[in-house]
Amino acid sequence: MTATLQSLWEVSLLLCVFALLAIAGLLLARVVGERKANKRESLRRQLLPQLLRGEPVPVERSRVARRMAADLTIELAELVQGNDREGFLAAASLAGADAELVRRLRSNAAQDRLVAAETLAMFPPYASAVSAVALSDRNADVRLGAALALAQEGRAPPVGKLVRSLGIGSKEQSLLVVSLMRDLARTNPHAVEALLYDLEVPDTAKLAATDALAESSSVDHEALVAWMAEASEEDSDLRPRIFRALGQLGHPSGHVAILAGLDSERWQVRSAAAEAVGRSALHSAIPRIVQLLADDQWWVRFRAAEALTRLGAEGRLALQRAAADPNWIVREAASTILAEQAAA
């Protein structure tokens, strides 16, 4: 009995020792954590104003300092614009931010690699490092994010190589591809135009390029429209986008293709072609557009009525007449758009 009590007492004493050690460990961890947090906050207060002023940063070149400089660069780089950005990036480099971001490009976490690539793209000396990420990172989102960041800075890799690496039109179907193409067309429109004549580039990638080029004034729109008109004759799911792009361009050489699209058997194509009529101010199509007010598809009727509102006084007069048509379907389509215009 005595031995049992003594054993219980020893176990209890041992548990108390373990508990005290655990408490001491927690207290020590808290003290160390607070000291690290205070050091990081002190570094932040020291770095922040000097980075924003673009001044050299006289701080210790420790790993903690480099991490803080990198975090501040990620946080602020997009906000600093114009001439101030050059000074900001130079100060960030002196503080070791660029070296830390390069290290993060090798992180196992895709999000860390993505953020590092997007920020490093703003540093001209690291364009090649970020290009390597855009072309070969194992994560598709990281590749696309790096490519977008480089394109925004006008430092993207060759367009054709980038399209193939990202798998645009095959593996990569993100809507961000359109934004990427716009940035690429802004800095290298002829390279983007060359995609249209590359037989190995998927049609969806070509359409993203077409949308981007339609907004550009740096290419020959007549040649572009000729390609689009030829592509619009093919029976594919991409035809509606081609007609929308033709309408956006509004080039006269695309009018024949648009008129042909109004007679398509597919309602999606008729709808897109009707929209293109309005956007390209194709007044000769008014009689055919009026006929589409009786189409059996609501979207076609809506786009036809909408197109008439874009075609000046002649189109509006045709719409008002349609609002009194004996056919109730025609009346409804015309009246709906007229009512929307009156309420606007």
* Main β-sheet description: none
- Name the overall outline: elongated
Query: If you compute it from the alpha carbons, what radius of gyration comes out, rounded to the nearest whole angstrom?
Result: 31 Å
Mean pLDDT: 81
Gap from first CA to last CA? 95 Å
Number of strands: 0
**Beta-strand residue fraction:** under 5%
Helix-strand pattern, N to C?
HHHHHHHHHHHHHHHHHHH
* Unreliable spans: none
Question: What structural category do the secondary elements indicate?
Answer: mainly alpha
- Please count the helical segments: 19
Helix content: over 70%
Oligomer: single chain
If you had to describe this structure to a student in words, what would you say it looks like?
- There is one protein chain.
- The chain is mainly α.
- Among the domains are: 37-104, no CATH class; 127-219.
- Helix content is 72%, strand content 0%.
- It is built from 19 helices and no strands.
- The chain starts with a helix and ends with a helix.
